[in-house]
């Protein structure tokens, strides 16, 4: 499980928490990392392949990207969506006109 938290008052405003489970070694690992809007975090996809989907969701919703992620594209929002909805500076009012085929 991976989650991203936005703290706009901090210098490194994003906090990413990885809760990893290895059934092979019967162990749990919690990794907590912080990043700013430019810094990219290290991915955990190679040792934990199932983390790829969760890293995509953190990028899609919070805007925190992973270095050399194999498939970094939107997963929770529409293809043409602009912005990251879980950021504290995301606008709460207004509308965006969307046209579907």
Q: Beta-sheet strand percentage?
A: 15-25%
Radius of gyration: 15 Å
Query: Helical amount among residues, as a percent range?
Result: 10-25%
Secondary-structure-based class equals alpha+beta
Which stretches are low in confidence, meaning pLDDT under 50 for 5 or more residues running? none
Main sheet summary = 3 strands, antiparallel
Order of helical and strand elements: EEEH
What does this protein look like?
Helix content is 12%, strand content 23%. It is globular. It starts with a strand and ends in a 39-residue tail after the last helix. The protein has a 3-stranded antiparallel sheet with strand order 1-2-3. The chain is an alpha+beta fold and 101 residues long. A hairpin with a 4-residue loop joins β2 (14-22) and β3. The chain has one helix at 51-62, and strands at residues 2-6, 14-22, 27-35. The model has no long low-confidence stretch (mean pLDDT 87). The chain has a single domain, classed as 2-Layer Sandwich (Beta Polymerase, domain 2).
């Amino acid at each position: 499980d991976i989650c991203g938290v936005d703290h706009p008052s901090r210098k490194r405003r994003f906090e990413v928490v990885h809760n990893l489970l290895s059934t092979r070694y019967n162990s749990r690992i919690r990794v907590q990392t912080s990043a700013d809007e430019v810094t990219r975090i290290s991915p955990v996809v190679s040792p934990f392949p199932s983390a790829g989907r969760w890293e995509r969701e953190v990028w899609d919703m919070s805007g925190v990207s992973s270095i050399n992620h194999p498939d970094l594209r939107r997963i929770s929002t529409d293809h043409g969506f602009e912005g990251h909805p879980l950021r504290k500076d995301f606008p709460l009012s207004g509308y965006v006109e969307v046209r579907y085929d």
